[in-house]
Amino acid sequence: MVHRGMRWTDVIRLSGDMRWTIGRSSSNPIVLRSAQSSRQHAEIRPAITPDGPVWAIVDLNSRNGVQVNSRRIKAPTVLKEADQLQIAGFELTFTRNPATLTRPPVRLPSVPGAASPNGSGAVDDGATQDNLGGDWQSDCSDDDGDNGESEVDVVSQIMSSGLAGRINREPNPTRVENSSDSDAVDPLLAMAFALGRAESIEECGETLMQTLEDLMPGSTIGLYLFDAEQKAALLEGAGLAPPRLVRQPAGTRYRRPPTPLIQPILQPQSAAILARNVLGDRRLATENTAGEIDVESIILAPLRPVVSERGDEAPAERNALLREKSLPVGLVHVTTPAGKPALTANQLRNVVAAGEIFCQAIRSIHREASLTRSLKKSEAVISRLRRQLAGRIQILGNSEPIRLVQQQIAQVAPTPSVVLVRGESGVGKELVASAIHHAGPRRDGPLVCLNCAALSKDLLESELFGHEEGAFTGATQQKRGKFEVASGGTLMLDEIGEMSLDLQAKLLRVLEGHPFERVGGQSPIQTDVRVVAATHRDLRAMVEQKTFREDLFYRLNVVEILVPPLRERGRDVILLANHFLHSFAESMARGRLKFTSLAEKKLQRHRWPGNVRELRNVIERAVVMSPMDAGGDGNVIELDADDLLITLVAGPSKGNASKASSGKVSEADDSDDLELSLAELEMRHIRRVLESTGGNKSRASMILGIERSTLDRKLKKAQKD
Ligand SMILES: Nc1ncnc2c1ncn2[C@@H]1O[C@H](COP(=O)(O)OP(=O)(O)OP(=O)(O)O)[C@@H](O)[C@H]1O
User: Fold this and answer.
1) Is residue 572 part of a domain?
2) Of 368, 352, 243, which Cα lies nearest the Cα of 306?
3) From the CB of 620, is ligand 1 less than 6 Å away?
4) Ligand 1 close to Cβ of residue 427 (< 6 A)
5) Domain hosting residue 242, numbered range
6) Is the model's pLDDT at 532 over the cut of 80?
7) Which end of the chain is more exposed for a tag (fewer CB within 10 A), N or C?
8) Which keywords belong to this entry (predicted)?
9) Residues 559 and 634 in one domain
10) Which of 38, 15, 6 has its CA nearest to residue 103?
11) Are 165 and 15 in contact (CB under 8 A)?
């Protein structure tokens, strides 16, 4: 094996009585393209010793000498298994063992005082060489001479790593190549382009085979691709399954490589090999039906994707990468029949390069397939969640006014009309908009909500219509507006009554089907959006006061849905309260909870200025404060009126505006608590919190938001009183 650096190696099979001269001249069977090499530098020749036939190396009076295991030889020297030769800057290894052929070359550390490659300072103490003039030391007698094929095999091997990028840039140091090889880059380029377009592994395989045929006309070619099962079987010593694809020119028949050659090539980091002069060698080729080995040369190349490590992978990820790197995903096997020209080292490099390009292509296809699979899974999950969501988005309630809302939703949802949803704060206007979206034909498109009250005029304009980069200070990049984002779906404009008159004009144009421009932009953008607007304001009154555009009002008010306040929904309060109770109890794992009749009475009597939002908060707080172990024994825990902390009313509402503005506690209606002083009410709450923490005062003081010392003080005071 002739190594050049760690990259690739040419190994030449020695056989017969021939003398294998090594040198710069291309008339040598082993050519070393180096100025350090003499024209005829050295010779490997067969010899007979008392222990049997051997191979020996002779320095042919070269200028720079020959070293065996880093010692310069002065006489013919018998070669032993794994001897390392240094000739003219090249490293050569002598081996009889085909299993070593696929291993990367191992460099010997240089021996102090050994000759340098250019021969200067050559030293030979003559102590370690077996040489033909001295006693025979037949170190090679234990080698595989049992089948009578003890000649050294000469094979080329290439480390398959990133070679594609360097293809045809490295000169071939050991052989004068066939001139037709110089065109090889064209089939490789053509293959790279074709693989870029390929959509299946089969297509990639056919492309690779076509390229290999072009690169090595007249050869038989087998392509093997291993799935996980085949890989495992192979590593356990099973034979090769039939090749995935085969090319056999007329008059030839493809035969699988022999098992001894397969095992080493399946090992981690194995290199591709080229064996020439194979005729009659059962270790390198499989016999034909007549029992003969009629093969001139072979190439066996593992297919292994080049995995570039980023260096920042987690250890597990790195190990997976290394495993992936070490196991071949397949094999390319090429043979030339006896009597035909042998395969060349350049062809070997081209096979390896083609294999690498092929591996990258199939990896992309695998990745794409796995991405498509996970995309499909995600889409299925999304549509399941959408269906679940649509099922959950139900406007709960059996009261007359809410039934009317449900009916209106069912009527408008399938249409493209603009809808105006009106109602007090927290009645469920956004829920209504969401129900319209999910019950309509746009349900698979986006639902985008924008609160017009939350933003300044300029920001709202840019949120609605987007902006171009540099449109204003801070517009560091282009941004799509909600009208673009919601395309194909629904845009809910909450608190539309708070929009400035300028923007109202711009909005009207879009609602009338005109295109719009992003802020600072010129290009018109057309969008396909259904608009649902919502407000707690009386837009009609605003129109009269000239604070809302009349034309926009009529454009928005195509269909109006008025969501009633909770206080007008009768028993719906209890229905909703129970709905929230069960869903919070479930999400907080609080077991089975129910309201006492007193609690229900309290819920029903309250005016609910904050509407459903307020009700939801009251129930959520009651569930949070309910005992942690509720339901552990399967018993139903009852929530009493005391557990429902209905607190300060913030903001006016029609029904209880007077109470709200006077800042009174909203449960002023709740006669149960009317007799209690604030101190008593506080102590009741403290006791309940303490109960819920199992008497843990530190946790109770945290929940209550007071210092532990304050809690102690209050408890002491209560005891005294
Ligand atoms: N009928 C209902 N069934 C179930 N939940 C409801 C119902 N109505 C309202 N809710 C709940 O009440 C809360 C407030 O609802 P939503 O945000 O839709 O009200 P809104 O009228 O849009 O409020 P705002 O005026 O503040 O925008 C939400 O948590 C919503 O899920």
Assistant:
1) yes
2) 352
3) no
4) yes
5) 164-270+281-369
6) yes
7) C
8) ATP-binding, DNA-binding, Nucleotide-binding, Transcription, Transcription regulation
9) no
10) 6
11) no
